[in-house]
Amino acid sequence: MSRNNAGLSRERILIEALHIIAGRGLGGLSMRRLGDALEVEAMAIYHHFPLGKEQLFNSIAAYVASPSPTGAAFHDEVGQDGEEQTEVEEQAVADERPWDQRLTTWAEAYRERLLTYSGALSLLAHRAPRTPNSATTWALMRHAFDEAGLAGEDIERAADALHSYCIGSVVHQVRHSGHDDEDALDAREWAARFRFGLRSLLRGLV
Amino acid sequence: MSRNNAGLSRERILIEALHIIAGRGLGGLSMRRLGDALEVEAMAIYHHFPLGKEQLFNSIAAYVASPSPTGAAFHDEVGQDGEEQTEVEEQAVADERPWDQRLTTWAEAYRERLLTYSGALSLLAHRAPRTPNSATTWALMRHAFDEAGLAGEDIERAADALHSYCIGSVVHQVRHSGHDDEDALDAREWAARFRFGLRSLLRGLV
DNA sequence: ACCTGAACACCGTTCAAGT
DNA sequence: ACCTGAACACCGTTCAAGT
């Protein structure tokens, strides 16, 4: 059974890892199981992630936290080329709506993404990916908060607060849902609460 | 070396676990290492945490997220008796300051606690402890937001938003500090940013 | 370059046994 | 009741070997 060139790639590995996490949780992801799912010996993964599981985790975190699925996380973690998300940038610039609507759109997309990969949420607690996308996001924030009348340090602080609120909301939701609770909320109510807090925060920031 | 009755207890195990997490990270906490630190065979821990590591993790999460270190997490995870934190309740009731100052005090204490045990932060992403303290916190929130003029569902939503912001801020800080970054922030600036967002959120909520 | 297979040190947990 | 010690199935990773 000496099958060589199994067609492995960083992208395939990452996708399969997310699949396993979705199905069996983060604790269910082992190199051996990942190898099985890819129909490959576990050790083959180390050729694409030489630093092992830690590097795989970093890539997963980068992929999940990436506000748009451009696939930037598939390549190097420190992406020095910023060509591939020009579409996103143009899209953000072309958006003619008021600043708060632009930020709301961004925040809801970010929340949606975190929620989609909520099984990997705990990976984000200790890993800050430096994806090309984070620069794009920062540009969007600066532009919007500038338009809102903020200046200097306040812009960074407002962007930080918005980020914090988004990730915190998802953590809060994941923490408190799925428990056989007498007062369990459904997805619609969670989304409503998110928007309520988001509106409040944006109103208070300016 | 058949030493029996090593004086093990839930509390001692929990404290030692937090110690290991602080020193070597969450991944460095193994039952065997924990046993070594307690000068006991690893299997002795199972007598106090019959459900194993998962139960230990739940207890750690309950302890860390507990807004006041009353030791409630040492006993059962579903604490049905609420006698031990009457002091906290009385203290909260006796607080005569305006509602926003009371919430600010709570939020900063909560943040401080999460930051102290930041190594266990990722445990909070999937575990919602039902400690006696959470009832106390809820009472404090309801009282404060009621005084602020909120009513009905808005009180729950505001409390959720405040919780989300606090935990999100700590996750955000932990994510982005400790990386040899050109623009690394110090503890004072992180605290300032937290207060900035907190003030904004409270202002926007009412 | 890309993957295999054996090996090593470690892990969580069960279970019978000791006191 | 409280702890030990051996055992089992699993884990991440290294390293020499195959193509």
From TrEMBL, chains A, B:
Keyword entries, A-Z: DNA-binding, Repressor, Transcription, Transcription regulation
Residue intervals of the HTH tetR-type domain: 13-59
GO annotation, biological process: negative regulation of DNA-templated transcription; response to antibiotic
GO molecular function: DNA-binding transcription factor activity; transcription cis-regulatory region binding
InterPro entries: Homeodomain-like_sf (IPR009057), HTH-type_TetR-like_transc_reg (IPR050109), HTH_TetR (IPR001647), Repressor_TetR_C (IPR004111), Tet_transcr_reg_TetR (IPR003012), Tet_transcr_reg_TetR-rel_C_sf (IPR036271)
Ranges where the Tetracycline repressor TetR C-terminal domain occurs: 97-175
Pfam families documented for this protein: TetR_C_1, TetR_N
PANTHER family for this protein: HTH-TYPE TRANSCRIPTIONAL REGULATOR RUTR (PTHR30055), TRANSCRIPTIONAL REGULATORY PROTEIN (PTHR30055:SF151)
Name of the protein: TetR family transcriptional regulator
Organism for this UniProt entry: Nocardiopsis kunsanensis
